[in-house]
Known about the structure:
Elements: H1 6-12, H2 17-22, H3 24-34, E1 49-53, H4 60-68, E2 77-79, E3 93-99, H5 105-109, H6 111-116, E4 120-126, H7 131-138, E5 143-146, H8 160-173, H9 181-195, H10 208-216, E6 220-226, H11 230-242, E7 249-253, H12 270-273, E8 274-280, H13 286-301, E9 305-310, H14 316-337, H15 346-355
Parallel strand pairs: 1-2, 1-3, 3-4, 4-5, 6-7, 6-8, 8-9
Helix pairs in contact: 3-8, 3-9, 4-8, 4-11, 9-14, 10-14, 11-14
Amino acid sequence: MNIDNLKQIKKFDKSEVYKSIETLPDQIRQVLNDARLIKIPREYSKVNQVIVNGMGASNIGARIVKAVFSDQIKVPISITPGYSVPANVNKNTLYIISSYSGNTEEPLSVYKEVKKRGAKILGITSQSGNKLEKLMIKENIPGYIFKPEFNYSAVPRAGLGYGIFGTAVMLAKAGLFKIKIQETKDIIASLEIWDRELRPTEKINFNKAKKLAVTFFDKEPIAVGAEFLLGNLRVIRNQFCESSKNFAGYLTIPELNHYAMEGLEFPKNNNKNLIFFFIDSKLYHPRIQKRIALTKKIVKRNKIKYIDYKLISKTKLGQTFELLQLATWITYYLGILNKKNPATNPWVDWFKKNLS
């Protein structure tokens, strides 16, 4: 498979997912422009916790925001996807129902119970006449109904700019933290520059996303990171599975140092199947940086291949989106290498059909 062959790429990418990936900066810019239209009641600032119910790509926004702004957000955030409502949900809870498609059954199923508990409810979904959108309009639920102008493929995981910044803007409007507008504008500018070297038209010799995709081919990647990038690790894992149709996992520092290293020896084919993907950052705590360096040595001594990538952005939010952009392209190209359509989810579709 020649990953530089645009005809072959388009043969598998029938939904033109690459166009959505290219417009991540535009998605963020659109959310910032839409922010003035997002109205959050004043009483929503009087909460002692935030709970988010969303599945797959629809809870990524909350996970990213929780990880990056953990030192700024005034109340704890919990992501509890599913059919049940935690016992601690009450009038002091800000409960976010998140569904890109607006038709996901799990978050929609809890609405009546959450309302009964007196929680302050927000919704976030795409503008498509979906169930959540209709519910928000009928029940006068505040939140963000976005028009996905820059997600041409309509694939939720290719529209993460909406979910991440949409969630951030709602929480900021609720008075739980502040978004630095100039920093966000700088990130948009950087993403536009970086993207030029990651697009399908850029040859593999000059395209680090293509090079890494080739490195991951026929392997089971294990992403490793820490602290403010914990949300990204989940994104990477999900995108490997969905976009690449390639099983993957993730481990976190320092947690993995207390158990996972002992599992590297067996089975004996670990050195043939696994490849570790270390995400390095100068913004990690110094002890975390030392732990990562030592962990790499242990992986190497177990004869398991690893690669590392050092993020260059100067802020935590900048590095979050730098990694998000890179990983989205890597997993897109790996899907092409696997000769799969990066937009489709055949097993998920089969499952939902048989579940209904």
